[in-house]
Amino acid sequence: MPALGPISAAARRPRGAPRAPNGPLPRAVWLGGTLLLTVGALPVVVALAPAGGAAPGAALGGLLFLGSTVHVAGTGWFYCVPEMRRHMGTRRARYVTAPLALVAGTAVLAAIVPQRPFELLLLAFFGWQFSHFQRQNLSLAALASTAYGSGSLRAGERRAVVCAGIAGIAGLLSHPSLLRLADVPSLDPVFPLAAAGYALAVGNGVVQLLRRAPEHRRPAAAGLYLMTLLFFLPVFLFQSPYAAVAVLTLAHGFQYLLMLALVAGGGPRPGRPVSLAVLLGVGLTLGLALDGASHLGGGGAPARAVYGAYLGATMAHFVVDAGLWRLREGFSCGFLARRLPYLLG
Description:
Elements lengths: L23 H25 L9 H16 L8 H8 L2 H21 L2 H33 L7 H20 L15 H21 L8 H12 L2 H5 L3 H24 L7 H23 L6 H24 L5 H10 L1 H4 L1
């Protein structure tokens, strides 16, 4: 989800029009669920993380399956929605050509590039992935601010979130062992600089929030904004790949799955059970395929090509989502406003 832009006039609730029925309750479910899934990911991962370099147990493995591959696969649900398919047909370069090119291109690269230089490419992939995480966080903070009557995020607040994300990503990339990249050299001197930059960004974000008038600093919106600032904190607190990285993956993935379930369940009432069933089927079916491909990076050229296709599918998820959740575009804004009127209406 990219950062939210101004909501189009067509998607706003007209002045004096009645609010969507039961609006406060589903809005609170979204907010509470988002905060719980994000903050709760840390103690759950720490409790379930295996010792040393052992493989995760069934409980943590299942959570990672849902939060990682199923959430990526869930984007495929949009291709099952007729009105969304028609929209995608008018922008085939983004929604058809680019995803197919990413899958095919990374499959070829993974098959022909030796392991060590390919891990350097993986470092770039992870940089893009965690940037995608923070853009989603920024979108959620902007959405909460608008939905709870705090107004749009201000420029200084947005910059603080972006800078916190950049510092967090720099901290991760400087310690490639956190990403399980054995052949990429560490950049240890960068880590304390990233930590200092992160602390400054978080401090500035808090200052920006306190500069708001009290009536524009609603607790719900402020809580979600603080969550976005602190999202990368585990990177600087833990040396375990699970506590420092897997927790971010789970938090991001479950944020997305919650929003996707609300969108799928927010369509025309007669079709809601079918829509949710299709989402579940697409997520699990494609998720199982992606999960199987994600473990083939250490095999021969054919297996590595399948692994590369998995990476390409993940990047295709970044590209597709960046378009579908862009509320500056009239179609996307109207589609989401119809399905989430308690957040966008």
